[in-house]
Design brief:
- The chain is mainly beta.
- It has one domain.
- It is 6% helix and 39% strand.
- The strands form two sheets. Strands 4, 5, 6, 7, 8 and 9 form a six-stranded mixed beta sheet that branches.
- The radius of gyration is 14 Å and the shape is globular.
- 28% of the residues are buried.
């Protein structure tokens, strides 16, 4: 995974996906997720992300995380956030559609509704 500026001058994740297609997107926001180092507090003080919609991009994360995600998700699938867990160097998301299963937030982008 690499970082580069997109056409809007925003730092985006960039990676060639499994189909050889260059993927460029801004990973989902983790604001409002549960800050695992400040228990009981929301990351950056945001409101709860519960109910927010995100899209699975089938890119970013480690290979083993993508392989696991592909057992459950299809590229482009829209999911509903149940909770986000923010750690010091990584963050995970749990979805209403898959309770008790966590995925790397880097593999998703926010859906603009």
């Amino acid at each position: 995974m690499q970082k580069r500026l997109n056409s809007n001058n925003v730092s985006c994740d960039y990676r060639v996906n499994r189909k050889g297609i260059a993927m460029e997107f801004e990973s989902m926001s983790i604001v409002g997720g549960e800050d695992l180092y400040n228990m009981g507090k929301k990351f950056k003080g945001g409101k709860s992300p519960k109910g927010r919609r995100v899209k699975f991009m089938n890119s970013n994360g480690y290979d083993f995380q993508l392989e696991d995600a592909n057992k459950f998700l299809k590229e482009g699938q829209i999911l509903t956030v149940k909770a986000i867990y923010v750690g010091s160097w990584s963050s995970d998301v749990e979805f209403m559609e898959f309770p008790n299963k966590r995925f790397n937030t880097a593999m998703f982008e926010d859906v603009k509704e």
